[in-house]
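From the pipeline queue, job 12 of 40. The input is one protein chain; the requested action is below.

Action: predict structure.
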Amino acid sequence: MTSPHAAAWPSNPFFVTAQQRLALARRRYFEEGVRPSGMVSEAVIQSWQRCLRAHHDPSRVPEFNPVTVSRIHSVLGHSRTLVEAASDELGQLRAALAGTTGRAILTDARGVVVGSSFSSALPEELLMPVISRVGVDLAEDLVGTNAPGITARTGQASVVSGCEHYFGAVQVMYCAAAPIHDVQGQLAGVLDLSSENLPFGFDAGSLVGMYATAIENRLLCAQSTDHLVVQLQISPPLLDTPLAGLAGIASDGRIAWLNTAAARLLGVPVQRGGDRRHDVEDVFGQAPAVLAALVRRDTPAPVRLPNGLMVWMRARLPRHDGAPAAVHALGRVAPAAPATALAATPPPEVPASVAAHTPSPATLRASDHQLIVQTLAACEGNVSRAARQLGVSRGLVYRHLKARTP
């Protein structure tokens, strides 16, 4: 095969369907070395290149590895938390896909199947009963280009349809996969939707992405045995959906992890295993104890973020006996909930001499400033203690004082 290169694709009236054009692109790539840019996704092209470098023959029939009882026990043992987190979603997918040829397949981070919604084969299905078995390895190195294999390899969502599969014998499959991450920000597993012989009649990429996010959120909460878990979104009903932002707060007052939705709302990068952890007050504009106080609320609380966005929040503490006492102590601090505005926070008791010499505020902004001055005086100038008593960040106190300094 010659070195692949980009080329213009002329219109061809004899290739009118997407699959016909894809078959032409595939043939020209493997036979002539013409890189099918714009016809095939970059993720698929790179997978083809990796398979070629590994000297895989595209015409060869791939062999799916045999599965033994010991192998099943081994893969399930290593993925127990992931499988438990995905249990409800796999059940929902089984019901949702019942009227289609689609099946849901869950793999671990290596691409080994650890669960599926497959129950019985349709008359035309030959590959599905094989690839959906627990213990089967769908890694790209073994079975060529496929969606769960690409996602396990790259950590990115992928869609592979028909002729895009590397091996010819697998071109009857249509699949879409999305990644699932853990509290360390590392790939924990892959959720895949596959259909044999028939393309999806719906947007499989969006559907698998939504369910993968729901599984990831459950996994993050299950693994957070020593974190305060904070939920946030711009509307309270969204807190009970896969769109909920999640953050894990450690006992040292830093953010241990964020899911993608939370990172986008807060305007910070998603934290990975080796990243520097963000300070809670810098990102949320609230002290850790204030966020922990949300645990005692029956309903979500409105909170204004430092970036100006108003979101609704609620929180929960770990229920496990092994959680550090410092994490549980966060929930025993006095504030009952963060204030939407400083004027909504009840003023603390202050010395009469200070109150007597403080004029009545004429505006809401002046009231905010007066409350800060009174609290700071009552705390003998200790900004940290005043911020904790008000339920706001130290930075907000400093900004108010600086704004009123001549």
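Job complete. Confidence is low (pLDDT under 50) at residues 1-9, 321-328, 331-358.
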